[in-house]
Please model this.
Amino acid sequence: MLAAQEVLKRGCCWRVGIGYDIRVMTDEWIPNHPSNMVICQPQEVKWEWRVMDLIDWTVGAWDRHLIETTFHKEDADAILQIPLSRRLVPDSLFWLHNRDGVYSVKSGYRVACKILKEANSACELCKRTTETALHALWECSVAQEVWAGSMRKQQKAAGSQLDFLHLVEVLMLKLSREELELFFVQAWLIWTQRNSVVFGGVIQDPSRLVKRAGEFLDEFKQSQVQLAVTRVETRCSRWIPPLGSTFKLNFDAAIFQDIKSSGFRAVIRNNQGEVMAALSARGPSVQDSEEAEVLACRKALEFTIDSGFSNIVIEGDNSVVMAAIPSSRLIHSRLGNLYADIHCLVAGLQVHSVSSVARFSNLVAHSLARFAHCINDEIIWLEESPQPALEALYVDSN
Model:
């Protein structure tokens, strides 16, 4: 266990609950952020500063003004993206390197290899300098021999770069699309060869790698032509009214990258297809589609309860989220607290079924989610058809 401590420390991250156990400056608690920690030191740091001090408990949300005026913009934006539970839940640790937040031997082995590689960071092939992505794929003498036989224009186009991303940006400005495609294939082959050598393989002749890069690129292009099919969108998957006295809740989410926010929508209809209640709301910036859909689901269930409906069927178009709603399994990922919020809300309703449906069966909710781009807060419709979704409602009725 003592030997594995470093692996666990590097692979775990705090999931914010009430924030009492998490130290702002020294703990790892900001997922999808470099080092998962606050990067830039604020001008004023409080003694024993805890994450709970950054939450406005009157509304149960991040104290945006405090965070934006205290932290560097990159840190502030990352903190404000962390979703908070509606409930007072304890802080907990989750494993960063698996989607479900649970440790596995395979992912732990990868973290251990990364730690060992950093400890022995000299280039495995030339033994001359620290191994970075730029060195491994471009500056190493072994890589240079391959590039010399591949495309001299690439070597001439690039000068002194800070890192591999900078190199790619330079080449994108100077090379054609075909030359860039060959560059990426060649870089992949160089990386594959390095991995092979590290685990006991031998260095191949540079001309062989150059030839293979051209062959792989030709094979890929040919396969794209052979696999190309005409996309036919069938209309057989329609919205189906609920049975009897039950009501159907459809929800969806949208991500607006241009304004760094998201959109939620929900619509509740009866067995005649009539809209009983509908919602379109602007949401926060999110890290991925799963987070957007989870937040939309929670918002839709809260809207359902507030509108006085309890006898419902739930439909959404994200299979991961819909599978998690009826599950009793504890979810350990960074979104685990949000899923737990949803389970608490569902427990107070009479839910007959939970289904994942095709986007075409969720058009009304999808239309309202896109409409959220045009509003600042939220709009609610009660027993009337939402204007932004009239076309989708017409499609469903026919």
